[in-house]
Amino acid sequence: MVTAVYPGSFDPVTVGHVDVATRAASLFEKLVIAVYETPSKGLLFDAEERVRLMKDACRHLPNVEIIKFSGLVVRCAKDVGAGVIVRGLRSGSDFEYEFDMAFMNRRLEPDVDLVCFMTSQDYMFVSASLLKEVAKLGGDISEMVPPNVAEAVYAKFGLPVQEG
User: Fold this and answer.
1) In which domain, by residue range, is 124 found?
2) Which of 4, 13, 54, 164 is spaced 20 to 30 Å from 147 by Cα?
3) Rg (CA), the chain
4) Helix segments in 69-161, DSSP class H
C-alpha cells in the first residue's frame, strides 16, 4: 500500500488544493493531508480551523486523512508511513523551489520521493495570499475556494459572503 503525504499551510484551502488532493487520492491508496501548524508567514486561520476547513472540503475523498504537523515534512512523511510527498506546481518558480527542496529532502530521508502535480489551467492564478487580499477588500472569491472556505474567510474579515 502506497501512502502519500500532501503538506501545506492551506491558509485558506483553495480549489487548486482540492484539485491536487483529488488527483493524488486517485493515484495513492492513502493520502494524508498534513496542515503545517507554524509556517513563517502570517496566518488568517489557526491550525485547528485549517484542518476543519480541509476536512469539509475533502469529505468526498474516502481515502484521505487530514492531520496537523510541525517540523520537517520528511519527518512527517516517515511518521505517517508515507513514501511519497505530493506537491502542486503552478509556475516555474514553484518548480525551482520544489526542485531544491526535493534534493534537501532526499538527503534527509532517501526513501521518501516527491511527486508533483501540475495545476489545472483553471487554477494557475489562484494563490492563498492573493485570495485573502481580494476577500479583505470585498472581492468575490467564491469560484476560487470551496463554499465552506468562502464563508469562513469572509467571516474572518467581518464581511458578508459574496455571491458569484
Assistant:
1) 3-156
2) 4
3) 16
4) 73-79, 92-108, 128-136, 147-156
Rounded Cα distance, 131 and 123, in Å:
12
Place of cell 487554477: 123
Strand (E) or helix (H) holding 13: none
Instruction: Give the pLDDT of residue 164.
Output: 60
Find where cell 494557475 sits. 124
Domains identified in the chain, total number: 1
Q: And the C-alpha cell for 37? A: 501548524
Whether pTM > 0.70 for this model: the answer is yes
Question: Does any domain span residue 162?
Answer: no
Q: Bridge-partner residues for 65, per DSSP? A: 32
Per the CB < 8 A criterion, the answer to whether 88 and 127 are in contact is no
Residues 6+ apart with CB under 8 A from 62: none
Q: What is the pLDDT of residues 40-85, one digit of tens each?
A: 778 999 999 999 999 999 999 999 999 999 999 999 999 999 999 9
